[in-house]
């Protein structure tokens, strides 16, 4: 939100109109706040906690769409996709909103939590508590850059650090 204050500005009137200013959002409000889900989806897409997923290896020889894959091959599921998401490094929740203001069918949760049988068992827990954290912060806070002694904004560039969860 520090880097994309315009997004924050767009969310707050939407929350106020659905929830009001005297109470906190609840899960009953979720269906009426598609833009917040778009912020959640864009958060998952933009900075996934593991942009290469978790590595897997084949336990036997296999063939997939015509490719022979020997036993012991290493697989990484790359979740960043510049072709599917133009300006992929920019945070743009509108990617997930259609012309009618509804959510599209494109949900990054379908790939940032891994795939099929070995996918993340915490998917729904994570989805719920990250949504709750996002909507509560947007409903209660104005997030902005820190300023130095001269009143000049201290800018920063977000970066990943090494480790499983950067
Ligand atoms: C935004 C939050 C989260 C993300 C993006 C995430 C993502 C992932 C990914 C990519 C994997 C590897 C799946 C694969 O092998 O293909 C994984 C595995 C796993 N996750 Fe999560 N996860 C999140 C939150 C959680 C939470 C909240 C829990 C538990 C409550 C959890 C528990 C696990 C466990 C136990 C595995 C290992 C499953 C296995 O291979 O047996 N995760 N997660």
Automatic annotation (TrEMBL):
UniProt GO molecular function: heme binding; iron ion binding; monooxygenase activity; oxidoreductase activity, acting on paired donors, with incorporation or reduction of molecular oxygen
Chain sites annotated for binding heme: 120
Signal peptide range in chain numbering: none
Pathway field: Secondary metabolite biosynthesis
Cofactor: heme
Keyword terms: Heme, Iron, Metal-binding, Monooxygenase, Oxidoreductase
SUPFAM superfamilies in UniProt: Cytochrome P450
Family indicated by similarity: Belongs to the cytochrome P450 family.
PANTHER family registered for this protein in UniProt: P450, PUTATIVE (EUROFUNG)-RELATED, P450, PUTATIVE (EUROFUNG)-RELATED-RELATED
Protein name: Cytochrome P450
Organism in which the protein naturally occurs: Suillus plorans
């Amino acid at each position: 939100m520090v880097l994309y204050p315009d997004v924050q500005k767009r969310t707050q009137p939407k929350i106020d109109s659905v929830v009001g200013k005297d109470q906190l959002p609840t899960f009953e409000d979720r269906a009426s706040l598609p833009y917040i889900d778009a912020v959640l989806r864009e958060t998952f897409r933009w900075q996934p906690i593991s942009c290469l997923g978790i590595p897997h290896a084949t336990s036997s020889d296999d063939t997939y769409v015509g490719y022979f894959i020997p036993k012991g091959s290493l697989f990484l599921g790359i979740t960043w996709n510049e072709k599917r998401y133009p300006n992929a490094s920019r945070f743009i929740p509108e990617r997930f909103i259609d012309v009618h203001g509804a959510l599209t069918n494109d949900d990054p949760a379908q790939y940032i939590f891994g795939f099929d049988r070995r996918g993340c068992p915490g998917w729904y827990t994570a989805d719920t508590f990250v949504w709750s954290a996002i909507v509560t912060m947007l409903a209660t806070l104005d997030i902005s850059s820190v300023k130095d002694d001269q009143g000049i904004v201290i800018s920063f560039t977000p970066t990943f650090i090494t480790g499983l969860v950067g």
